[in-house]
What does this fold into?
Amino acid sequence: ETGVTQTPRHLVMGMTNKKSLKCEQHLGHNAMYWYKQSAKKPLELMFVYSLEERVENNSVPSRFSPECPNSSHLFLHLHTLQPEDSALYLCASSPTGYTDTQYFGPGTRLTVL
Amino acid sequence: QKEVEQDPGPLSVPEGAIVSLNCTYSNSAFQYFMWYRQYSRKGPELLMYTYSSGNKEDGRFTAQVDKSSKYISLFIRDSQPSDSATYLCAIRGRGSNYKLTFGKGTLLTVNP
It folds into this structure.
């Protein structure tokens, strides 16, 4: 595997379910990001981790909980989501912080019923 | 006023046409300008990156920045069906402030 991978690629969940999204980067980068992409809206930054420390939490509801166990892996834990949370969730990585190019994964298409 | 404005299209052109994609921004502190391309069912990939006013060329692609007008453009010459994708502008201020501001993206279709 190369680049940034995300699993699952598609997820359908009910509002009472708990699920997790996984991101893995094979680029040796130190910063990782979660973005939300909704139709007709710009990409929204959710969380940033640098060297496994969360450095940005962009006013995201607590039903989204990130976890970064090491610099190669990033998780987004989901619980009691709302239908408006349905979107494409993109993971990205960069060598260090925002001064660098961000490399995106293919995303997880999430549908909340 | 939104920080970055981008017409979402869709834009449909015949093969070989010159394509012009544009964004405007409101914050004069923005210093770094990027264009990302996103194919269907894929994540965005960086296409062009510039930090100064003027033109930057890479093959069939030219990125243009006019800081005085707060206006950026991406031109695609001799467009190909493989250029069909969503193009997103992304802008960042100086320093490591961890925030890229994206436009909504423009959906481009190049018809053979």
User: Anything to note?
Assistant: DSSP finds no helices and eleven strands in chain B. The CA atoms of residues 63 and 98 of chain B lie 23 Å apart. The radius of gyration of chain B is 14 Å.
